[in-house]
Automatic annotation (TrEMBL):
Protein name as annotated: Ribonuclease Z
SMART domains: Lactamase_B
Metallo-beta-lactamase domain residues: 20-203
Chain positions covered by the region annotation Disordered: 289-321
Gene name of the record: rnz
Function in brief: Zinc phosphodiesterase, which displays some tRNA 3'-processing endonuclease activity. Probably involved in tRNA maturation, by removing a 3'-trailer from precursor tRNA.
Alphabetical keyword list: Endonuclease, Hydrolase, Metal-binding, Nuclease, tRNA processing, Zinc
Molecular functions per Gene Ontology: 3'-tRNA processing endoribonuclease activity
Cofactor binding, per record: Binds 2 Zn(2+) ions.
Length: 321
C-alpha cells in the first residue's frame, strides 16, 4: 500500500511566515495518522492536503506548541458530522490534560477518546503498529515508530513450473503454505521481507532509544532546532542540533533523514548543510512537502517539494469601443 509523510508544520516553538507549528501526517494506505497538532494545524491542512478523516492522533509531549491545535480541530470534526471514532494517544497525563478542555470541544457524537501510553507500548492497526519511544526532553516525552508487518517472501513462479506445479490454483496453495505435488513452499518462496519503518523523534536531545528504534529505518524524522554553534542552548532546552541528529541517523543506518522543528533564527540551508557534512542523505522539508516511501525493493524514499496550485489568469478586460 502507498506510504508517505506529509509535513504540515515544520517550525519550532514559535510559528513563522514560512513554517507552522509541529504537525506531521502519515498517509498509510487509507489510514491517516497525525503526529502532533500545533496551533493552526487544521488551517494548514485545509490550505494543502485537506482536512483528512484522521484515523489516529499521537501527541509527543505536552508543550503547547505540539497539541494546542487539537481543540479547534476536534470541534470542527463534530461540525462536519464525522462518524468514525477517534483516539488521541500520548504520554502519561494526556487524558487528564485534554479532559480539562471538554468545555471547548464537548463530547462529540463521533466518539472521542484519550489514551495514555506507556514507554515502548504498541498500538496495533491493520498491517502495522505504532510504538512509543521514550526520549530526552523536558518532562515525559515520546517519539513514535510506525512499522509495517513483514511481507511474505517473493514467489518464484518459473521455478514452481519447472518443478512440475501447474499455473493456477496450485500456485495459490503453495503461497498459502501447502505442499503441492511434492513441492514444498520453502522451495519456491523466498525469505520474508521486512515492512517499512518510519521513526519520529519528537522533541529530544540525542538518545540511544531513537538510535535503536530507527535502526535501518526507511525514514527518520528528527528534530534539529539548532545548529552546532548553539549546542549549549540545545542541551539546556532538551533539543538537538543538526549535527547531532545526523550522527543519530548515521549510527542507525537509516535510509533518509528529514529534519524538522527548526528555530525561527534559521532559513533551513544552514541546518541541511551542517547535517549533510555528517550524513549525506539528509533533507530539510518545508511546510507541505512530502516524502514518498516505496517498498524497499521498489526504490528509495524521495522528498517532493510542494507547489501551490496555480490561480487561473483573470479574464482580459473588454476592449474599448
Amino acid at each position: 500500500m502507498d506510504l508517505s509523510i506529509f509535513f504540515v508544520g515544520t517550525g519550532g516553538s514559535v510559528p513563522s511566515a514560512r513554517r507552522g507549528l509541529p504537525a506531521t501526517l502519515v498517509r498509510l494506505g487509507a489510514d491517516r495518522i497525525l503526529i502532533d497538532c500545533g496551533e493552526g494545524t487544521q488551517r494548514q491542512l485545509l490550505r494543502s492536503d485537506g482536512l483528512a478523516d484522521l484515523t489516529d492522533i499521537f501527541i509527543t509531549h505536552h508543550h503547547s506548541d505540539h497539541w494546542l491545535g487539537l481543540l479547534g480541530m476536534l470541534k470542527t470534526f463534530e461540525l462536519r458530522e464525522r462518524e468514525r471514532p477517534l483516539t488521541v494517544h500520548g504520554p502519561p497525563g494526556t487524558k487528564a490534560l485534554l479532559e480539562r478542555f471538554r468545555v471547548v470541544f464537548g463530547r462529540p457524537s463521533y466518539g472521542l477518546s484519550f489514551v495514555d501510553l506507556e514507554p515502548d507500548e504498541e498500538v496495533r492497526r491493520g498491517g502495522y503498529a505504532v510504538t512509543s519511544i521514550p526520549v530526552r526532553h523536558r518532562g515525559t516525552a515520546f517519539g513514535y515508530a510506525i512499522v509495517e508487518d513483514t511481507r511474505p517472501g517473493r514467489f518464484d513462479a518459473e521455478l514452481a513450473k519447472a518443478l512440475g506445479v501447474e499455473f493456477g490454483p496450485d500456485f495459490g496453495r503453495l503461497q498459502r503454505g501447502e505442499t503441492v505435488n511434492g513441492v514444498r513452499p520453502e522451495q519456491v518462496i523466498g525469505p520474508e521481507r521486512r515492512g517499512r519503518r518510519l521513526v519520529f523523534s519528537g522533541d529530544t536531545r540525542p538518545t540511544d532509544h531513537i538510535v535503536a528504534a530507527a535502526y535501518e529505518a526507511d525514514v527518520l524524522v528528527h528534530e534539529a532546532t539548532f545548529t552546532d554553534e548553539d549546542v549549549d542552548r540545545a542541551q539546556q532546552t532538551g533539543h538537538s542540533t543538526a549535527r547531532q541528529a545526523a550522527e543519530v541517523a548515521a549510527e542507525a543506518e537509516v535510509g533518509l533523514l528529514a529534519l524538522t522543528h527548526l528555530s525561527t533564527r534559521y532559513h533551513g540551508r544552514e541546518i541541511r548543510d551542517e547535517a549533510r557534512a555528517v550524513f549525506e542523505h539528509t533533507e530539510v522539508p518545508r511546510d507541505f512537502d512530502s516524502i514518498e516511501v516505496p517498498l524497499p525493493d521498489r526504490g528509495e524514499p524521495e522528498l517532493h517539494r510542494w507547489e501551490p496550485p496555480r490561480r487561473p489568469a483573470p479574464d482580459p478586460a473588454p476592449a474599448a469601443n
